[in-house]
Amino acid sequence: MSQPSPAPRLTPQFCFNQTALRDFLRISRGTIDDSITQNLNALLTPSRRGFDPASTSSRQWSAPGRILPPGQCGQFKEKVLYPSWAVRSDVLDYCAGVATSPDPEDPDSVLRQIEDVRARERTVNERLDPYSGRYFPREARTESLAMLMRNERAVEKIIRIRTWNLLGERCGSSHESAEEAFDKWRTSQRQ
């Protein structure tokens, strides 16, 4: 069985290092969610019956041997899937908090202030130069991080829905959504 993703050390530097942040999320998703079919196949017990040649004579649309026992599905969710989702949720929540906090250590803040002052002092004559009125202020790293967090949360939602649908096919459908099941698990872990 796969192991849940280990939690990274959460610091503002980790969040602002977008390469490290994206790599963590990519590796975590690849280990559990992107390879969910392989992870679930690993839970299947090898065939107890021998090979039946008649099984190849016609196409079988349903795969009764591919449905997993509820105990194994539950254990996979409890020990691997939900902890992995929890680590990623914690990282996304922490970095979203960093993105909305003031950033006194922003290395480009002085440069942005200088550019803003220059832009305000600049003489604009659009008759002589139609492009002279253009000014594109530099984006603060917190704004860039906030945009990344919005995108990553959307990706996370899509991946969880896909994973939950595959779990429903292999383990039996659940009446609750992925988020409801995960929230219920999170609540039970806090108690």
UniProtKB/TrEMBL annotation:
Q: Which cellular component, as a GO term, is one annotated location?
A: mitochondrial intermembrane space
**Listed Pfam families:** MIX23 (PF09774)
Source organism, top-level taxon: Eukaryota
Q: Where is the signal peptide?
A: none
InterPro entries attached to this UniProt entry: MIX23, MIX23_fungal
Q: Tell me the protein family, please.
A: Belongs to the MIX23 family.
Record-given protein name: Caffeine-induced death protein 2
- According to its UniProt entry, this protein's organism is Ampelomyces quisqualis (Powdery mildew agent)
